């Protein structure tokens, strides 16, 4: 990778968004400094780790799949090469059509040419295969990139307080350093960031269980929850979606819901051992698209946020688009700029 003598770009936060953006910028020859204390468990670390192109009760496409899926698989393959270890496993997903809405949606979807590459009748009644999916070990991915950044002098284990960021003639100043710009990738904390006070964040609490069991399926299985095999006898089950309780602690109600979902999907649920129960806040958006851009009048203060529950599907494409705009110029995707909600009530 060729590096020119630009002032570095400061990236505030190393969840999935900050991780993907840092790698995409370094690929383009830009210097970066990622600032992240590394002790908090963010939404990326507690996600079920599933790339799922068809979601919801209506079996809906999760965006422009012909654009998003190739970008996701290219990025995950490149990260595996960078880290010297696999970070994802392409796999179909078995979806059970439990409930009236998915059962009603399936006959329409199977005749729709926009869905036929991704949906196929499953091996059992009321089941379908979803193609184009993947299992991702989010924690290993983020830890691996963190170690790579640290080894190359691109990481500082500190949090960027937005109040300590100032604009100067030459760019951005923070903690005694000078940067060409700053990009905040701080998850749900953007709600308290004074640079972006008008961002209509839609936080959703998610909880997952992680455990071990024998006789795991070879592929992810989705019913009321998703059972995701992580390799060997390890699995995750998740996730819950709670817009009302956005506390950061796991709850007993969440555990009960997850265990019920697990019992529906495991061949022998009584033999499963639960090792961890985790919770985090997903930084979503009202329309399900991320936020890329800057506040009016402050072009050197950037934002990459709002990936929500589809971060693994949305993140690689939009990180590449933002990195291209920062490193080479050009416009950002209009569907993802923060001002798309301007004037709405």
Structure overview:
It is a single chain. By secondary structure, the protein is of the alpha+beta class. It has helices at 16-27, 43-46, 65-83, 100-110, 138-151, 252-265, 311-328, and strands at residues 9-12, 32-35, 50-51, 54-55, 60-61, 88-90, 93-96, 119-121, 127-130, 134-136, 155-156, 166-168, 171-174, 177-179, 181-184, 202-212, 221-222, 226-231, 234-238, 273-284, 291-293, 301-305. Helix 1 (16-27) runs parallel beside helix 7 (311-328). The N and C termini lie far apart (46 Å). The relative contact order is 0.19. The model has no long low-confidence stretch (mean pLDDT 92).
Count the DSSP helices: 7
Placed side by side, the strands forming the largest sheet appear as 8-9-7-17-18-19-16-20
**Largest beta-sheet characterization:** 8 strands, mixed
Share of residues in strands? 25-35%
Helix/strand/pairing class, anyone?
alpha+beta
- Stretches with pLDDT under 50, minimum 5 residues: none
Order of helices and strands: EHEHEEEHEEHEEEHEEEEEEEEEHEEEH
Tell me the total number of β-strands.
22
What is the radius of gyration?
20 Å
In which range does the helix fraction lie?
Answer: 25-40%
pLDDT averaged over residues: 92
Distance between the termini: 46 Å
Shape: globular
Summarize the structure.
The chain is 27% helix and 26% strand.
Any key phrases for this structure?
345 residues; alpha+beta; 8-stranded mixed β-sheet; 6-stranded mixed β-sheet; 7 helices; 27% helix
């Amino acid at each position: 990778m060729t590096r020119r003598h630009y002032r570095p770009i400061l990236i505030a936060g190393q969840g999935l968004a900050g991780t993907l953006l840092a790698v995409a910028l370094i690929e383009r020859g830009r210097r970066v400094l990622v600032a992240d204390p590394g002790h908090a468990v963010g939404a990326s670390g507690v996600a079920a780790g599933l790339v799922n192109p068809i979601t919801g009760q209506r079996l809906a496409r999760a965006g422009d799949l012909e654009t998003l899926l190739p970008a996701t698989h290219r990025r995950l393959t490149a990260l595996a090469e960078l880290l010297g270890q696999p970070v994802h496993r392409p796999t179909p997903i078995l979806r059970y059509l439990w409930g009236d809405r998915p059962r009603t949606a399936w006959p329409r979807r199977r005749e729709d040419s926009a869905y036929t590459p991704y949906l196929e009748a499953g091996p059992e009644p009321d089941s379908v295969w979803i193609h184009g999916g993947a299992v991702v070990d989010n924690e290993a991915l983020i830890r691996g990139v963190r170690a790579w950044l640290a080894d190359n002098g691109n990481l500082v284990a500190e949090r960027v307080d937005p109040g300590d960021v100032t604009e100067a003639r030459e760019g951005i100043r923070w903690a005694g350093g000078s940067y060409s710009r700053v990009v905040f990738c701080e998850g749900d904390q953007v709600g308290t960031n004074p640079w972006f006070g008008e961002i209509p964040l839609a936080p959703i609490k998610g909880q997952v269980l992680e455990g071990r069991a024998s006789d795991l399926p070879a592929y992810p299985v989705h019913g009321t929850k998703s059972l995701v095999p992580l390799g060997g006898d390890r699995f995750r089950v998740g996730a819950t979606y709670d817009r009302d309780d956005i506390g950061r602690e796991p709850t007993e109600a969440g555990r009960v819901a997850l265990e019920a979902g697990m019992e529906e999907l495991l061949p022998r649920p009584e033999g499963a051992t639960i090792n961890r129960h985790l919770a985090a806040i997903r930084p979503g958006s009202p329309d399900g698209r991320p936020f890329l851009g800057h506040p009016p009048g402050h072009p050197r203060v950037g934002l990459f946020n709002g990936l929500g529950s589809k971060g693994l599907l949305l993140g690689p494409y939009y990180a590449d688009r933002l990195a291209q705009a920062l490193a080479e110029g050009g416009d950002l995707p209009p569907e993802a700029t923060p001002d798309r909600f301007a004037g709405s009530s």
